[in-house]
Design goal:
Structural class: alpha/beta
Number of helices: 17
Distance between the termini: 62 Å
Strand content: 15-25%
Radius of gyration: 23 Å
Strand order of the largest sheet: 7-8-6-9-10-11-12-13-14
């Protein structure tokens, strides 16, 4: 039995404690947020849990005795407390690493700045169509803790993981049979501080892979294309802009698969899939590549694609009211993701932007307006920064809103029949909302309540 310190009392932390106690380890659950009461933490654990629950300042004796530390994704690795624990010889890992250590099946892991949730969910659906629901587990950043599912795995199961850069910072032995890096664009620089550190975290998904494994990469992304030259796994490419000798690529309205010098069309993006936007075409190509590498038959994969609907909060059609189409893209939490939402619009659009400042720049996002965006309605911490950027690029049809309700009502007044209203903020939701899901749900509630 070893001493484990679990930092963070959210979903990841609670499930880490449960797994560790199942493994008969000695566990302390700690949260530095003094607004939380230890009784609240205790209530999240099973009644028979023997874990100690500590809030606020970590006692010195607990710090010194910790042999292993499990960080929840929201805990930065450069936190002084984490550095002090390392200095005392503690082994630092994340919840993904802990879950993997109990994994008995095969793993496919997907990361990227954008598209992770859609691609992971689609791969999960393909695997379920092939193997059956009971043999497939979809975990990670998607909202289902790896540590809550890993004990159910066996030699015949598949785990599909959406893995964030935060989670990849703390892996040690995590070794997926198939990995994918969908794209890398500036994001989370308030956490990673430099683009180099952010890129390194994403590339860490292949850290333990070999040439016996597969990594699916986007040929049209500068970072992933360069990484392909030094990737330790066998690379499978996908491209939305050019023909590939090997891999998946887009020719007109058709997804083409090239193998061994020959190519064939396998999917019509308008007839054979429900998702909209070039970003989702890339997500589908990546999902097909991952599924193939995991052994799924092509006909099963294509059938799963044909019935797959948009992931909630990602360019999700909500309703048409008064001739105006409303789209919820609340998961567009960075400029690059929000660009994809704008590009999916085929009509004049009233765009909702703004939120928490992750120290991103918005020039490319504004440039993507390209006549599509009719009005820009801004909310949150970044609204002045975004407005200044928009004006530098010659766009001045900007309105501010103090509250979310005011923002939604303003959009309804500005939109005319034949327009779209798009919630695609290019910013995180923190500060105004607990998460992007709440932001998106409130948008949908408002829209559905319109006459």
């Amino acid at each position: 039995m070893e001493n484990y310190l679990v930092i963070g009392s959210g979903i990841s932390g609670i499930n880490s404690v449960k797994l560790l106690e199942h493994m008969n380890e000695k566990v302390t659950l700690y949260d530095g947020n003094e607004a939380i009461k230890s009784e609240e933490m205790r209530a999240k654990l099973p009644e028979n849990s023997k874990a100690a629950c500590i809030v606020g300042k970590l006692p010195g004796e607990v710090l010194e005795s910790a042999q292993n530390v499990v960080l929840s994704p929201g805990v930065p690795v450069d936190l002084p407390l984490v550095q002090e624990l390392k200095a005392h010889g503690a082994k630092i890992m994340g919840e993904i690493e802990l879950g993997y250590r109990a994994e008995k099946g095969r793993v496919a892991a997907i990361t990227g700045t954008n598209g992770k949730t859609t691609t992971t969910t689609l791969v999960g659906e393909i695997m379920k169509a092939w193997l059956g629901e009971e043999r497939v587990f979809v975990v990670g950043n998607i909202g289902n803790a790896y540590t809550s599912e890993c004990l159910k795995t066996n030699a015949d199961t598949v785990t599909v993981g959406e893995i964030s850069s935060f989670q990849l910072e703390t892996i040690c032995d995590f070794h997926p049979a198939v990995s994918a890096i969908l794209n890398i664009t500036p994001d989370h620089l308030n956490r990673h501080h430099t683009m180099e550190a952010y890129v390194a975290a994403k590339e860490n998904i292949t850290r333990n892979q070999t040439k016996d494994d597969v990594c699916v990469l986007n040929y049209e992304n500068e970072y992933t294309r360069k990484f392909g030259e030094r990737c330790p796994a066998r690379v499978v490419w996908f491209s939305s802009a050019r023909e590939l000798e090997e891999g998946y690529w887009l020719r007109g309205d058709k997804i083409v698969k090239s193998t061994g010098g020959s190519c064939r069309e396998i999917l019509d993006i308008h007839r054979d899939m429900n998702l909209v936007g070039l970003c989702n075409v890339e997500n589908v190509m990546a999902a097909l590549a991952v599924a193939e590498a995991m052994g799924a038959p092509e006909e099963i994969a294509l059938q799963a694609v044909s019935v797959f609907q948009a992931v909630e909060h990602r360019i999700e059609f909500v309703a048409s009211k008064g001739g105006v189409d409303y789209y919820n893209d609340s998961k567009g939490t960075n400029p690059d993701a929000a660009i994809q939402g704008i590009r999916a619009m085929n009509r004049p659009t009233v765009l909702i932007g703004g939120g928490y400042d992750k120290e991103n720049e918005y020039d490319e996002w504004v440039e993507s307006f390209e006549g599509r965006v009719k009005w820009l309605v801004l909310i949150g911490q970044t609204r002045e920064k975004i407005a200044e950027c928009a004006r530098r690029h010659g766009f001045d049809r900007i309105r501010f809103a103090e509250t979310y309700q005011e923002c939604l009502e303003l959009c309804t007044r500005l939109a005319e029949a034949g327009d779209a209203v798009l919630l695609s903020p290019a910013c995180a939701s923190w500060g105004m909302f607990p998460n992007y899901e709440v932001r998106g749900e409130l948008f949908k509630e408002y829209v559905r309540g319109l006459a």
